[in-house]
Design goal:
274 residues, 9 helices, alpha/beta, 10 strands
């Protein structure tokens, strides 16, 4: 973090001295909210919900971000690793079946310290790294042993689209390397009694006009990650935040656009979220 090289942007600002890079977060993480969430994939929800901790700021600049008030406007309050640990234990205590770190990339060191503290104090539920998929392999290697379930996005198969819509032209190649490292660490998703315990769960949001090159993303998962990859092909895209300023994504998707990707993933034999 000082200088910061946590993510592929390599901003090299001195965050421990309060400087902010692309993510907009300095020395301490900013938490927007923490609580049980029942809107995640069913394997992450169970009966008690997923114990989500939403971190403000982001290392991506997605113009269609559905959580833009948190990711871009950085709503929330600064917390210490000890406070993160306390939140984890509280979520476990109220029955959440995991602890789910939403947008964790830029605050990885604080999360790691929080996990270490919480485990010493009795944290037993799985940890979930819920990220945009724009990750440094070097940082992911540091996380080995801390994270039980990786849940990255696989957003784009096209560099030009990634440059226009999230200000990261190298997203496709960076994402592929990151997913390979995540899978190396935790393998395919293990589900017991309908609940995820360990492994990789990939999300892909279908967008209008095939701007993401979705079939290329599915091919990569099936051929280079695992034919048994657990994937959530998502249909909830809507043009929020600045999306209407970009003609190709200024509308919702059609049923045909979604079914084309979903059925293709099904044909490839991938495990599809319900």
């Amino acid at each position: 973090m000082d200088p910061c090289t946590l993510c592929p942007r390599q901003c090299k600002v001195h965050r421990l001295k309060g400087e902010e890079g692309f993510c907009g977060i300095g020395a301490l993480p900013v938490v927007s909210s923490a609580g049980p969430h029942f809107g995640e994939e069913s394997v992450l929800v169970g009966r008690g919900g997923s114990g989500t901790i939403f971190f403000a700021g982001c290392n991506l600049g997605c113009v269609f971000c559905q959580n833009f008030d948190i990711s871009h406007r950085k709503a929330g309050h600064a917390v210490s690793p000890g406070q993160i640990a306390e939140a984890m234990l509280q979520l476990q205590g109220i029955g959440c079946i995991n602890v789910n770190y939403v947008t964790p990339t830029h605050v990885t060191p604080h999360i790691m310290e929080g996990i270490a503290i919480a485990r010493e104090r009795g944290l037993r539920v799985p940890t979930v790294y819920n990220c945009g998929g724009y990750e440094s392999v070097e940082t992911l290697r540091l996380l080995e042993g801390y994270i039980d379930i990786y849940m990255p996005d696989a957003k784009f198969g096209d560099p030009e689209t990634a440059a226009e819509l999230c200000r990261a032209r190298d997203y496709p190649e960076v994402n592929k390397a990151a997913l390979k490292e995540m899978h190396r660490q935790v393998g395919d998703l293990v589900v017991e009694n309908g609940v995820a315990k360990r492994g990789l769960l990939v999300r892909h949001l279908v967008m209008p006009n095939d701007v993401c090159k979705s079939l290329e993303v599915i091919d990569f998962l099936a051929k280079e990650i695992s034919p048994n990859t657990f994937v959530n092909v998502m249909d909830q895209y809507r043009p929020v935040y600045q999306a209407r300023e970009h003609a190709k994504i200024a509308r919702t998707i059609t049923a045909d656009e979604f079914s084309r990707v979903y059925l293709y993933a099904q044909e490839k034999g991938l495990r599809l979220a319900k």
